[in-house]
Amino acid sequence: MNAPLVSDALLRPVRPGNAFEDTVGRLLQTIRLGVIAPGESLPSERELAARLQVSRDTVREAIKSLAEAGYLVSRRGRYGGTFLADELPTPDSVGAHGVTRAELHDALGLREILEVGAARLAATRTLTATERELLWSRMADVRGAEPADYRRLDSRLHLAIAEMVGSPSLVPLVAENRMWVNRLLDRIPLLSRNIEHSDEQHEAIVIAILAGDPDAAEAEMRAHIAGSASLLHGFLD
Fold it and tell me: What is the Cα–Cα distance from 129 to 52, expressed in whole angstroms?
């Protein structure tokens, strides 16, 4: 393995707000660019944590998620460690087939424009008791969702945030973009640690909106969207 290339170009420090998602993305870069060959080992958890500037728990969760997705295997014993699988998932099995880089960047760029702006504007409005209850309820529904229902309920929450802006023209735009983004998300594995992190971010976004704090609502939504983008770029770009 070309250690200088990995350390200098790929396994660079990640953003604190999306440590798990960025760690998965960095590891996928080393895999998809061929820096690590099938059957070769990754650096140790300690070394990865130091290079990425994240906790060893974060590295361990990222490795576990990629192992469940079929990219990595863990072996115990004297010559144990984490290794790249001998046979990697094919593009069709992870759903990357048919997605161009331009389409990916376009969908994610539009999502940032629409949904970050929606969160900020929603936080500037004086919401009615019914609106506040609806927003909190939508957030709670996502937190308790089964995997099969997660994308649907997640979309419903994000559409509810757009509805709080009070602009009838905004909701159809967000809905159309979410349909495209969901088609992309459906092409990558549903990672349990990412879902837990997303639930935490959803709560922070809703709390900021209900508190009437547009700066916090914007920052939390931007971080949330960046986390999803990291995973999509890692698996599909």
Answer: 44
Closest CA to 14 of 58, 46, 57, 44: 58
> Quick one: fold of 3-89?
Arc Repressor Mutant, subunit A (1.10.10)
The CATH homologous superfamily to which domain 101-236 belongs is GntR ligand-binding domain-like (1.20.120.530)
Higher pLDDT, 43 or 99: 43
Structure tokens at 139: 């957030």
Domain boundaries, the chain: 3-89, 101-236
Rounded Cα distance, 56 and 129, in Å: 43
- At residue 38's C-alpha, the angle toward residues 87 and 76, to 5°, is 95
pLDDT range class, residue 21, cuts 50, 70, 90? very high
Best CA proximity match to 48, nearest among 61, 32, 59, 37: 59
- Between β-strands 81-84 and 72-75, what pairing exists: parallel, antiparallel or unpaired? antiparallel
DSSP run (H or E) holding 181: helix 170-185
List 82's β-bridge partners, or say none: 74
Across the strands, what pairs with 83?
41, 73
Is residue 12 scored above 50 in pLDDT? yes
Q: Name the E strands within the chain.
A: 72-75, 81-84
H or E element in which residue 75 lies: strand 72-75
Average pLDDT over the chain, rounded to an integer: 88
pLDDT higher than 70, residue 97: no
How many Cβ atoms sit within 10 Å of the Cβ of residue 214? 17
